[in-house]
Amino acid sequence: MGFEVEPILTYDYLIKNILHPDDLHLIDAHAKKMMEEKNTEIYVLDFRVFHQNGNVHWFRVWETNFSFNIDGIPTEVLGVAQDITASKSIELQLKKQNELSEEIRRISKSGVWEWTIETNQMFWTPDLYYLLKVEPNYFKPSIQSLIAYFANGCKEKFVDSLVKAEKEQTPFDLELEILSFPNFWVRVQGKAIQSKTNGIVIIGSIEDIDDSRKKRIAL
What we know:
With 219 residues, the protein is of the alpha+beta class. It has 2 domains: 7-91, PAS domain (Beta-Lactamase), CATH 3.30.450; 109-218, PAS domain (Beta-Lactamase, 2-Layer Sandwich). It contains 7 helices and 8 strands; from the N terminus they run ααβββαββαααβββα. The protein has helices at residues 11-18, 24-37, 85-108, 126-131, 143-148, 154-168, 210-218, and strands at residues 43-50, 56-68, 74-83, 110-116, 121-124, 172-178, 184-195, 199-208. The strands form 2 sheets. A 5-stranded antiparallel sheet has the order 5-4-8-7-6, with helices on both faces. The protein has a 3-stranded antiparallel sheet with strand order 1-2-3, sandwiched between helices.
């Protein structure tokens, strides 16, 4: 970190020169927890420090209570610290990208699906899971589950369009009602393509048009 060894052994020097002020509460809570729990488990903490040149580095420490007095109070701590600046930077960038992707999904209100007829396999983009309010980790999409999202009367229109797309390669562009709380209207587009490896594949998109449809009807 570019500092002399002797000065950094005092906590006051650490606070004034090395530890990031926004992380002091995390460090204090970490130390307090180790003192209160009085065990030899491994405690892990990520926090920021200042290099002597002014740059901010991320550190990760693994610490354990090493010795105790007769009352069971920890008196010594054994620890290892590692500079994780590079990996933390990647982690924070990925977090930011995920947050931006989440915001884009919220704004765009649309998603894409793909149905491979021969294998009956279905693929949804993350945006479609978001639009239809389902958790990707606990839901396996299928053409049957997609059909089930549409209200009565709309189901039949969607199925008919799928059949025509498969048999006649007819593209479709529909306005259908989705069952939800509350229900909302979407624009469903799709077309069939001939895949060299998977036969006929129908790809499509679903876009939330509920607000624009209500405005159009109100005119």
